[in-house]
Amino acid sequence: MLVRCLMCLALLAPAAHAQTRAETEALFQTWLQTTIWPRAHADGVSKRTFNAAFSDVTLNWDLPDLVPPGTTPPQQRTQSQTEFRSPALYFRPNSVDGTANLGRSYANRFATTLAQTERATGVPAHIILAIWGRESGFGRVDIPYNTFRTLGTKGFMSARADYFTDELLAALRITQAGHIAPDQMRSSWAGAMGQPQFMPTSFEAHARDGDGDGRADIWRSEADTIRSIASYLATNGWDGRRDWGFEVNLPPSLPCTAAGRDQMRTIAEWEAVGVTRVSGRPFPAHERNGDAALLLPAGTNGPAFLVTPNFYVLKTYNNSDLYALFVGHVGDKIAFNVGPFRTPWQPVDDLLRSDIAAMQNRLIAIGYDVGGADGLVGFKTRRAIGQWQTAAGQTPTCFPNRETVRAITN
Predict the structure, then answer these.
(1) Domain coordinates of the chain in residue numbers?
(2) Over the stretch 115-151, which tens digit does the pLDDT of each residue have?
(3) Do residues 211 and 221 touch, judged by C-beta distance below 8 A?
(4) Quick one: which of 152, 252, 164 has its CA closest to 200?
């Protein structure tokens, strides 16, 4: 007992120097036995399951964002974000069209399962298919990582160790429940599992048995995957009576600062100020009294959208405007064979999170609401940029570039 307590203290004490890999591997094995096993046992995980999960498991040193004992987290300045590059990269035609084409074939292949799921949950088949296609290419993309090695590594030595430790414990509970054998539980490099790419806690909350075999197997069962994606969206508030959104034209009098989830109006009210669909068709009658927000993912550097609360349900799956927009757009292509966005994306500067955070801190200091200095260009940051540009006598774009960041921070 004394030796075990001394080991625990050694793990908790700040490392005086960077450990060798061999030393770190030994600490990892001790951490599994003294920290993870007691918590897993308390959750009802058997020793047999625990040993099977961690049989021959070592640290994966190739994963990103690791913070080995005795080291410090990487500086934010080295990090670049996809969202700060041109959204055109996110919407490459081969990616959009390829996903939609496959989606149409899967719509025919699993028509009965999709129809049953839509009736049960209210989530339309084309949205389920778009998420399935985006997450794993309808199960065709290789998911190569051992879940327990991945989550174990990140739980032991990453900047978000507590989060990944909780996910590791959830993964143990999943295999204890008999959904899948430990050696067959595969994930992404971040621990997202199976065809829907659920983190283990999301699996526990939302995975469903779609084929009636009594298990929720999101790795090998298409029916389980379909039902689980729908369950996730339905639980998070998908309204089967509404669409996700519409690409729109804006009148010159409407500034980009009118965008944002906190400035919703009914679609009829947006119509009254001159917002129209790019297709030229009227908004559906059943949508006109429903709330919608103006979305400008790249400010004035790209298309504009009116998005309904369902758009924000899509963001619960992945908290990115571009992700939710991709899913909605690909879903429309699957169901209605729509063309590309009418307004093209313009190139935007590739910026670092540290640069954005510095700009946000400066905007906060001079009285603007940016939603927090997190280095991410959310709608409040986009709006604050537009407000600053207007106050500075500039034409507002509501999106950062190098010149704007330099002008605000200097």
Answers:
(1) 353-409
(2) 999 999 999 999 999 999 999 999 999 999 999 999 9
(3) yes
(4) 164
